[in-house]
Amino acid sequence: MTLSKNFEHQINENKWYSHWLDKQYFKSTPDERTPYTIVMPPPNVTGVLHMGHCLNNTIQDILIRQARMKGFNACWVPGTDHASIATEAKVVAMLRERGIAKSSLSREEFLSYAWEWKEKYGGIILQQLKKLGCSLDWDRTTFTMDKDYYDSVINIFMDLYKKGVIYRGKRMINWDVKALTALSDEEVIRKETRQKLYHLNYAIEGTNDFITIATVRPETIMGDTAICVHPDDERYKHLHGKFAIVPLINRRIPIIADDYVAMDFGTGALKVTPAHDVNDYALGQKHQLEVVDVFNDNGTLSEDAQIYVGLDRFDVRKKIAIELEEKGYLIKTEEYTSEVGYSERTDVVVEPRLSMQWWLSMKDISSPALKSVMEEEIKFYPPKFKNVYRHWMENIKDWCVSRQLWWGHRIPAWYHESGKFVVAKNEKDAIALFETEHNISNAVLKQDEDCLDTWFSSWLWPFEVFKGYSNPNNADINYYYTTNTLVTAPEIIFFWVARMIMAGYEYMDVKPFQEVYFTGIVRDKQGRKMSKSLGNSPDLLELIDQYGADAARFGIMISSPAGNDILFDEAALEQGRNFNNKIWNALKLIKMWEARQTHEHNNENEFAINWFENRLSEVSIEVEQMMQQFKLSEALKTIYTLIWDDFCSWYLEWVKPGYEQPIQANVYNKTIEFFTELMQLLHPFMPFISEEIYHQLTERTDDLCVRLYAEKKSPNQTQLDQGLLLKQVISGIRDIRNKQQMKPKDSIKLFIQTENSVVFESLNSILSKQVNAEEISFASDTVPNSFTTVIGKDKFYILTEQPIDLSTQKSALEKELNHLKSFLMSVEKKLSNEKFTQNAKQEILDLEYKKKADAEMKINIIELSLKDMAG
RNA sequence: GGGAGUUUAGCUCAGUUGGUUUAGAGCAUCUGCCUUACAAGCAGAGGGUCACAGGUUCGACUCCUGUAACUCCCA
Question: Of A41, A277, A637, A794, which has the fewest beta carbons less than 10 angstroms from its beta carbon?
């Protein structure tokens, strides 16, 4: 069978992924092996694969595949999150396109549309992960609104309510006027926004005097219930206790003093609007101010505003500014930039708003979770996130868990017309409970219309995917939990990671995972975050189509240093594709040898084989260490160099027979063995091409995907050093050939002046092949009319037929000589420093003496050569 | 305003407890090669006062202080 010109990724990806599935390699059930478990951060059920997922899931697949090949029972659990706000928004948009308004539907009708939509489009992302090669146990796919999962969420809500940590309360929340729901602080994105600062005059009651306040929100003045100044502010001391009149609506409001006010900001006088600003609300509570809410749910002005009723808040801002100006209240405006909160989901300006919501008190539940990370019971990589985590946990605020949505887990609270309520699983339980608690019979109860925050379900993920709460102590949860590694983006450290740790301790009594690896954020070449609005997010599936899944995995991993953001550049995928091509060509070369084996034996290739064997051990050990420290990018880089440079550029060239010449069978077999091991090292990173090569190399009954790694012996350092020396000698001589513009076909005669001729004897056959030397011999003295180079302690003379122009070589040697001389000087200076010789450790001293001796010797050799040239 | 982090070659990054031949890699660049595995390639080369200023030390990319720029998080 002839091999294709290049690796055909599309065919191979389909072939191998379905083969792996057929063989059930990704399926895990508890057995006598040690488990290695990862739960995948569930993407939104509405999601499509983007670069962030690609990075995240490639990392997880690398860890899982490596664990599998190390003999662990590897289990990687997939799933999706119902993503209440995002999904509901999509369904609402879909209905709008069909001409259906959400408000015209009942809850049940809406939910049936939502489920229909979910069944049709949900989980596309899981199919896309298969394209990437992810080795997930698909039988374990979980959705956060699966029956059992749903029940667990509700039961946990009830449990926390019983424990007294869930409560109902009117608090200032972030209101999304588009999605018509409360948002948690973490769902609000602050952005620098250019605004106008309006200076407005409020009349002082009973005088002709005015007080000037500065505000960016003139549309809220109808909600003003006080003006506040700093108690020490001389400008306003005479106004303490007086009243001001709100323009346009003529409300009488007190002028109060509080040191909260910054004297140097604006005019030093602050209008207080308790219903529409968090700080004003706190101030209002302190001074017992009235609360006037001038907005409706959707951001239009309410009846209480008295004017502009029904108009949108931003329209009113413009209109009221004009009216205020016309009536003489507006005295000036200035440009002002400040941070404004936007909804993460809908990107509208968030409105602070007083509202009745459900809250989870965080103080007690968070303390074991803080301790666990601080004491490295759970380890964070990179560790810098420990600080971030601590800071948040120590200043934690109560969690608003209710959302004004229909898609999600409906809050199990039941209300009576009297306003009394109970928390219960269903209507029947609720009525029974209500009757005993409140002694009212035949009560008619209505369930809370709201849903729980999405994260209130995802915080159970690590144990509920194994039904650890719904079916306690089952075989799976006992075997797989605590999971091993959580791989996630730092953006959701508070949303998700912290809360999973809390839930783990609260409900399983143990931590949910051993360690958390935080990936970087994927940015574009210019360092901008990838986003739909910028249009800088490439279509991953198209990239996979074009370059192949292995190349995509390579590209994203090679540019992903541990703990840093990654700047994504398509060039990295190209590099990955080129790497595929390189590997494929090495296969083609070796396949050409297959039919040309001979059993005649000689020792010519012994050195190459020994050296590569040691090099392979050395790198395998290095890679293992890097993996343990999550230096995945470095590990891949190391394997890349091993394959491309050591294997292809050196080893294969060293053992390669001449054109159409035979190859010794033992060399051929060793080469197949090496290539196999290289593919095994590479497999977690690039699963498809490695599996294909594994099967191309020789007839196999097993698959690389599940082949166990062999133990590696520690390498022989002498062998490695000799290999390094050989490479340096070859490069050095090639450099001279290059500089003298010799053609590859021009052969040379090589003379080596060395004290170590035994070593070179074993290297000679390779050396002559690699530098095209027709003859290699040893010299005890300088060789006239030759080009010279010094490598280590040895001197090499190159004789050619070409006319010799020594000028380039002379200047090169002089440059080298200068460098060595200044180096020597610095060493000597150090050694003549008594303080150094007294204080430095002996091994450092010895090293310095060695440096000195080596430098002196090299200087000597070079000076001799230069003298010869002159002569 | 508070906190955390970053600053090393044109770009992206390594650099372990201060001493390892006066800083390493990949990409990009330059030179020469279409050499029967590979031009998506081969063989070489060039390129850095380690942000700046002080300090500690026999010795600082590495430790300390300050300055500047950038990034992120929280108000």
Answer: A637
